[in-house]
Amino acid sequence: MPETKKSPTGISPKKLSNLKVVVLCVAAATTFWILNALNKDDYTTIVDFPVEFEYNQENFMAVKDLPKTVEIEISGNGWDLLRKYFNINNTPYTIELENPSSQSYMLTADLKRGLSEFLSPTQLVSMVQDSLDFEIDKIQTIRLTPVLDSMSYTLGKNYRMLEKPTFDPSQITVTGPTSLLEVLEGKYPVKLNESRIEQDLSKEVNLEVPKEYEDLISIKESTIVVTLDVVGFFEGNKRLRVRKENFPKNVSLEIENPTIMMYYLVDERRTDELKEIEFEAVLDYSKRNKQDSTISVQIKPLPEYLDQVRIEPSLLNLKYE
C-alpha cells in the first residue's frame, strides 16, 4: 500500500484542502452577510462628528484648543454610518461666531437644525453633548512697562542697587489676547541672566516670549537695553565710647566700663565721611526695661549710609544699690 504524505502540521493534504474550502466558504458568507447588512437602513449609532469654528482671526484669537468634534446620535444607511463613525471623508460642520469673545460656550441645541441638514441623508437623532466650551479672546496691542525679573540676576556680596533699573526703550509693545495681557498687570518681566554683579552694568537683552505663550503673544521690539547702577558696601567695626544719661546715683551697670562693639556695612563712597564721625553707645536710663532691669544700647549718630548695623552687646544689666 502506498504511503500517505502528511503536512508539517500532521494533517493530510486531502484534509488540509477540505479545510481551506470550508474557511473560504465561511469568509465568503461572512463578507456577503456584512455587505448585505450595510446596505440596510435604520441603523443607529453615536459618533464624534468633526466641527470647525469660523470667526474673524484678525481680531480674535483662541486661547485654548477649540473642540474638534461634537458627539451626536445618528441613524441611516449602514455604509453612511460606517463612514461617519470612522470619520472617512467627513467634511467638518462649520460653526460661525460673530463675536466669540462675548461667550464661552455654545448650546448644541442651537446647532441641531443646521447640522441635521448638513448630515442629510443621514438623520440626526439627538445631540449627546449639551454644549461646546471654548475660549476665544479679542486681540489687543498694548504698551507694557519693563521690569527686571528678580530671579534672572544676582548681585555680588555686599553690593546694592542704587536706584531702580532703567530700560531703553522704556515701553514694550505687546500684542495678544485680552485675558492674557490683563494677567501681566501692565508690566513685562525682562530676564538679565547675570550673576554676582559688582559694577555698573549696561546690557542689551533679547526680549523673549515664555514658551507657554509663544503661539499667543508677539512683541514688537526684539531687544532692550538694561542699565544698573550698583554700589559696594565694606564691612567694618568700631569700639564705642559709652555715655550714660539720666542715671540716678544709686544705679550703675553690673559690668562697669563695658566693651561695646558696633559692626556694620558702609557705602564705599562714604568711607572718608565715616572716619570723621565719633560714635557713642548711649545708655538712657529713662528708656530702661523696668520688667527685667536692662537697658538697651543706642548708637548716636547713625548715618543713613550704614547698613546691617549690629551692636554687641545690645543689652546691659542694671545694678541697684
Task: Describe the structure in your own words.
There is one protein chain. By secondary structure, the chain is of the alpha+beta class. The protein is 17% helix and 43% strand. The chain is built from 5 helices and 25 strands. It has helices spanning 13-38, 78-85, 112-119, 178-183, 271-275, and strands at 43-54, 60-62, 69-76, 93-96, 105-107, 123-127, 131-133, 136-148, 153-155, 159-161, 166-168, 172-177, 187-190, 194-197, 201-206, 218-219, 223-228, 230-245, 251-253, 260-267, 280-284, 294-296, 298-300, 306-312, 315-320. Strands 10, 18, 20, 21, 23 and 24 form a 6-stranded mixed β-sheet that branches. Strands 2, 8, 12, 13 and 16 form a 5-stranded mixed β-sheet that branches. The longest helix is centred in the first third of the chain and has 26 residues, at 13-38. The protein is elongated.
Outline the low-pLDDT stretches: 26-40
State the shape.
elongated
Characterize the largest beta sheet: strand count, sense, and whether it forms a barrel. Answer: 6 strands, mixed
- In terms of quaternary structure, what is this? single chain
Q: What's the N-to-C terminus distance?
A: 140 Å
Helix share of residues?
A: 10-25%
% residues in beta strands: 35-45%
Can you give the mean pLDDT? 84
Characteristics of this structure?
five-stranded mixed β-sheet; alpha+beta; 17% helix; 43% strand; 321 residues
